[in-house]
Amino acid sequence: MAKSERAKALEAKQKADAKALKELKKSSTNPSDWGRWRQLVETYKVTAEHDKALPWLMIGAFVVPFALVLTLGLIFAGGSILSVIMWIVLALSVGFLGAMAVFALRARAAVYKRFEGQAGSGEVALGMLPKKWTSEPVIAFTREQDVIHRTIGPTGLILIGEGEPNRLRPLLTKERKRHEQVAYGVDVRVIMMGDKEGQVPLDQLASHIKKLPKTLSDDKIAEVKKRLTALGTQRTRMPIPKGPMSTKGARASMRGR
Fold first, then answer.
1. 105 plus 191 within the same structural domain
2. pLDDT category, 124, cuts 50, 70, 90?
3. Which of 3-7, 42-46, 88-92, 247-251 is predicted least confidently?
4. Does residue 186 belong to any structural domain of this protein?
5. What is the mean pLDDT of residues 211-223?
6. Residue range 239-254: average pLDDT?
7. Region label for 120, one of left (φ > 0), alpha (ψ between -120 and 50) or beta (otherwise)
8. Are 128 and 252 in contact (CB under 8 A)?
9. Quick one: 144 and 217 in the same domain?
10. Domain of residue 211, residue span
11. Are residue 228 and residue 159 in the same domain, yes or no?
């Protein structure tokens, strides 16, 4: 009997803990605690604040393909009710995908616009890379808040410099040599962020990295990542501007996965 009471008490405690955790996540302002639907809603709200055309573009992206597919369905349905229903479902699906595609593109543009020109903004672009890439933001920086980020993936080991080029070059050279010593024969690429000739803008950084020639296999990436743990890079994180916008809800679409 006592055992049964203890089991009931434990079950009640587990239910209470689960309820408390649910309430905590519900009231949390941390996007990582939110569900996928809330992430999408919050991302839409913040994006719409900066992009007044977003609702109309999404409506157009839904209505146009919906109407086209539905028109085709009415032409080829042949009078069958079941066929008409299937075409309606298909039209709704295509319209929804069109609206979500526009939303993902505009949300990504809003994120870049929001952080462009701020110290450490390269972290935003690195966050758009697929899971095969492992990024380490702000591995080194200057007093003037010029920073160096690092990412490793199929296109290699890459250092990204962000800030004033003349101040960054000595630091990039130093970090490149340190990484080459640890990486043992793996080429270390260097990218300079910016809008000048030879530089890569923030909103093009992720796509630029993905388009580079693939030089590392999955096994080699894992091997180099282990070696990098021994590298004594600066771990003091420079304060990076944070905002309320969450990109997690639409991130898969943004990455093109």
1. no
2. confident
3. 247-251
4. yes
5. 90
6. 45
7. left
8. no
9. yes
10. 122-234+249-255
11. yes
